[in-house]
Design goal:
It contains ten helices and seven strands. It has about 260 residues and is of the alpha/beta class. The protein has a seven-stranded mixed β-sheet with strand order 3-2-1-4-5-7-6. The longest helix is centred in the last third of the chain and has 18 residues, at about 220-235. The radius of gyration is 19 Å and the shape is globular. About 35% of the residues are buried.
Length: about 260
């Protein structure tokens, strides 16, 4: 199976709950030196308007590897430039004032070397601001892997899954580089009822489970999705109106290298 591109419409179905942590991260950013503002892993540009309101006089650059997402980001008009690139290796033309990354860096490995490399792209006094989900041990994420491993052994192990290390490790990596603020928040999200399937499946299948589902053919996906819906009904029971309370943990940090 070949990996598909991101689906902006599927991802955007839960735009409100996905945007909230992005805005919470933005609210924790203080003053900046001269330089550009970069939205690293900008996706469809959901936070672009907020960045434009906060930094109207800055050159704003969106960077992402997905053409489909970048087309949506460019259409927002919130960025002065959008760049298709691997966010792990992209280098700015000059050091930047803010490197902002919301729910993207968990897709990259090697955080021991990645985070210092990102910090080196900042101008003196610049800020690296990052939010990453820390949900992999929750039923919503763990059961995708368990089901595929149980029914198609080895298939899930062939794909890269979003991962983070423990917060204490990020503190060890980042604290020597500047002034670090590191925290976690668990959001109790209300997901709307779905016409078919469990709401948590629709939330996770556009992100965490996407590379796993890409390894399955249509019949296999239908089977795994049915089993997943059953498991989610037990783990996250729908209310009478079909909505679901879905706890979701996210980790944040800001690093000021001033």
């Amino acid at each position: 199976m070949t990996s598909t591109d991101w689906d902006p419409d599927h991802y955007g179905r839960f735009g409100d709950v996905r945007l909230r942590p992005a805005l919470d991260l933005l609210a924790r950013i203080g003053g900046l030196p001269e330089g550009d503002v970069v939205d690293l892993g900008c996706g469809s540009g959901s936070v672009g308007a907020a960045l434009a309101r906060r930094f109207p006089d800055r050159r704003r650059i969106g960077v992402d590897s997905s053409r489909a997402m970048l087309a949506k980001a460019e259409a927002t008009g919130a960025y002065d430039a959008v760049v298709e690139a691997d966010i792990a290796t992209w280098e700015p033309e000059r050091p930047v004032a803010l490197l902002y990354s919301n729910a993207a860096l968990q897709w990259l490995g090697g955080h021991e070397s990645l985070m210092p490399a990102l910090a080196r792209r900042l101008a003196p006094g610049g800020i690296l601001a990052v939010q990453m989900p820390r949900q992999n041990r929750a039923p919503s994420h763990r059961i995708w892997n368990d089901l595929v491993q149980d029914h198609f052994p080895g298939r899930a192990a062939q794909v890269a899954r979003p991962e983070t290390v423990d917060p204490i490790e990020y503190h060890r990596i980042l604290a020597p580089l500047g002034r670090l603020d590191l925290w976690e928040t668990e959001y109790f999200q209300i997901l709307p009822a779905a016409e078919t399937g469990h709401p948590v499946r629709h939330f996770t299948s556009s992100t965490f489970a996407r590379p796993i589902l890409d390894r399955l053919d249509e019949g296999e996906r239908v089977m795994i999705e049915k089993l997943y819906d059953e498991a989610m009904t037990a783990a996250y029971p729908p209310a009478a109106d079909g909505t679901v309370l879905f706890p979701f943990r996210r980790m944040f940090f800001t690093l000021d290298i001033g």
